[in-house]
Amino acid sequence: MHLGVSESMRECEYSQISTRSSTPMETPYKKRTSRKRKWESFPGRSKFYCDGRIMMARQTGVFCLTLVLILVTSGLFFTFDCPFLALQLTTAIPVIGGVLFLFVLGTLLRTSFSDPGVLPRATPDEAADLERQIDVANGSTGYRPPPRTKEVVINGQTVKLKYCFTCKIFRPPRASHCSLCDNCVERFDHHCPWVGNCVGRRNYRFFYMFILSLSFLTIFIFAFVITHIILRSHRNGFLNALKDSPASVLEVVVCFFSVWSIVGLSGFHTYLISSNQTTNEDIKGSWSSKRGKDNYNPYSHGNIFTNCCSALCGPLPPSLIDRRGFIQSDTLQLAPPTNGITMYGATQSQQSHMVSETGSESVTKTSAFRAPNSFCRLPPPLSSSSRPVNQSF
Amino acid sequence: MQGFVPTATDGNMATEFHNLQELRHSASLANKIFIQRDYSEGTTCKFQTKFPSELESRIEWTLFEDTVKTLNNYYAEAEKIGGQSYLEGCLACATAYLIFLCMETRYEKVLKKIAKYIQEQNEKIYAPRGLLITDPIERGMRVIEICIYEDRGSSGSSSGSSSVSGSTAR
């Protein structure tokens, strides 16, 4: 973190201390190691590209297929059908088609490449604290107890929060653990192989806009390719028309088979958005009235409009995993006295002791990925990562 | 004690750092407590205001509750859905989200305010009592982590507010 020099002295000292401790020159105890970014030691099964900017699931083959289908079909449309249609009908057709195509591509890439809302795993201290609380509640130690749950009342509805053994946290409501990506995802909708990523809180709106615009694009291409063939057949006959423009046949086939599933999916997700449910909840029937008379969705805002707006236009939360931040060793917690009354020290002796003992490996470890916990340890790196504020991806 | 720490006006930070290192005044981390999330209002970010027993001897509960309530208010402000958030959402959609290359989202702006608030609270209230609050964003918004420090020199017993402690540095 680089705060300006013009800031108040106290803040300056705080900030300068933190930046100081992250550079190698000032302390003889720190060894210079190559700085790794957090994504490089991410515990889940997600894959990262472009130095942590892009985050996807492990299997991306189907995503490539999606991309190829969209690019090829649209490409054929613009190359073979649009010239004829632009001349015979109007130039608005390729223009609108182009806009739709770009929108589809943009939302697809945004859905696929962004962090769906992955919850970082618990630090060892947190996990230990939770374990202790659970043991106290259960009265048992040693063997692995039955699935741990916590009940919470949300807007009058009792919701069970499950404990995730992998991430060592109690999952927030609506979160779920994706077994393919091995991450807990907030407001988990589903894992979509077609976009090569989970669909969760942070990318659901992009996913919805993708399938919606893709429906329009598919219908658009389908309609105008048919128009093209019809217009040509008026002139030259049906078979000649097909011979003149063979690409159109391929486009029609692709669009015909896609339109049912994509339009169907858009309709389904429109329903989900308007009732503020996730695919996960709908499939399990969590809020279905079949479960009980008093069963209702506690997250719904009551009316369709508000539900839609909150899903699509609500605030976009930042990524919690800070994948491009640097892994920092624990910074020394040093500060001058505030107003001369109290004195702050630091555990420098501990730090130096630890460093010399355990070597350079542990110096680069973060508190999040540290080995078994101990309470006789360094204070947490408060200013550890320079959290990039514009990380809205 | 204070004389050991030269003020940083001139900015020879290396010297200052070195002096602090020589201090040998240590605060050892005695305990960490975690304030969990309160989900009674849904998935919005809110922390429990229940006063943990470990802090009873360290800080007045009104101060603690005040801090947590203020944080909750900040988070509620960040996640509020209303006119401004809709406008931001629609504008972002219309510009294909490119607008966020030059502009911060409202959430990010509030997170910055929160970071500043926590630093301030640490400086004024928590550090003098041997406590330290970690920004929840560093813990994936799951918990508010409060570190409890003890003065090593006082043979293991937890000392009062004049104990040394680490402090936030950002």
Automatic annotation (TrEMBL), chain A:
Cell compartment(s), UniProt: Membrane
Polar residues bias (residue ranges): 15-25
Reactions catalysed, as given in the entry: L-cysteinyl-[protein] + hexadecanoyl-CoA = S-hexadecanoyl-L-cysteinyl-[protein] + CoA
GO molecular function per UniProt: protein-cysteine S-palmitoyltransferase activity
Keyword Transferase tagged: yes
Pfam families reported for this sequence: DHHC (PF01529)
Region (Disordered): 1-30
Keywords assigned by UniProt, alphabetized: Acyltransferase, Membrane, Transferase, Transmembrane, Transmembrane helix
Signal peptide: none
Transmembrane domains' residue ranges: 62-80, 86-109, 206-230, 250-274
Keyword Transmembrane helix tagged: yes
InterPro entries in the cross-refs: Palmitoyltrfase_DHHC, PFA4/ZDH16/20/ERF2-like
Predominant location: membrane
Residue intervals of the Palmitoyltransferase DHHC domain: 160-284
Membrane topology: Multi-pass membrane protein
EC number: 2.3.1.225
Notes on the domains: The DHHC domain is required for palmitoyltransferase activity.
Protein family per UniProt: Belongs to the DHHC palmitoyltransferase family.
PANTHER family xrefs: PALMITOYLTRANSFERASE ZDHHC14, ZINC FINGER DHHC DOMAIN CONTAINING PROTEIN
Protein name per the record: Palmitoyltransferase
Biological source species: Monopterus albus (Swamp eel)
From TrEMBL, chain B:
Parts forming coiled coils: none
Keyword Membrane annotated: yes
Main location: Golgi
Keywords assigned by UniProt, alphabetized: Membrane
GO cellular component: Golgi membrane; palmitoyltransferase complex
Superkingdom of this protein's organism: Eukaryota
InterPro entries: Golgin_A_7/ERF4, Ras_palmitoyltransferase
One Gene Ontology term from the biological process aspect of the record: protein targeting to membrane
PANTHER family the record matches: GOLGI AUTOANTIGEN, GOLGIN SUBFAMILY A, 7 (PTHR13254), GOLGIN SUBFAMILY A MEMBER 7B (PTHR13254:SF2)
Membership in a protein family: Belongs to the ERF4 family.
Name of the protein described by the UniProt record: Golgin subfamily A member 7/ERF4 domain-containing protein
Organism, as annotated: Monopterus albus
